[in-house]
Amino acid sequence: MSGNSDYKDLTAAVSVQMRAMRASQPDLMTTFGQLAAAGTRDGALTRKTRELVALGIAIACRCDDCIGFHVQTLVKLGTTRAELEDVLGTAVYMGGGPSMMYATHALRAFEEFLP
């Protein structure tokens, strides 16, 4: 993602394309939505904790779209900058230098999504 990109615009654009896919691939998108709901609901771990884990994976996998959506949700769930930075540190530990670069993307997304 270039330095000029905006995570609010990115997530909005991806959402438009996902709606288009929902029209052409309803079974796939319904199943994916169910998977996302099952993977992020409260259980032994809270939804916020599960979203933090998902963000760490998104950073390690270098998925800007995923970073945008998980950070957006984390802001809605009241995640603090300190909590976010702890996850970023773990993602960098597991993913090395490339994850360091994407951790900075997550920080930028966090700042963009803050109210």
UniProtKB/TrEMBL annotation:
What SUPFAM superfamilies does the record point to? AhpD-like (SSF69118)
Q: What is this protein called?
A: Alkylhydroperoxidase
- What are the protein's GO molecular function terms? peroxiredoxin activity
Carboxymuconolactone decarboxylase-like domain boundaries:
26-108
Q: List the PANTHER family.
A: ALKYL HYDROPEROXIDE REDUCTASE AHPD (PTHR33930), BLR3452 PROTEIN (PTHR33930:SF2)
The record's InterPro entries line, in alphabetical order, gives:
AhpD-like (IPR029032), AhpD_core (IPR004675), CMD-like (IPR003779)
Domain of life of the native organism: Bacteria
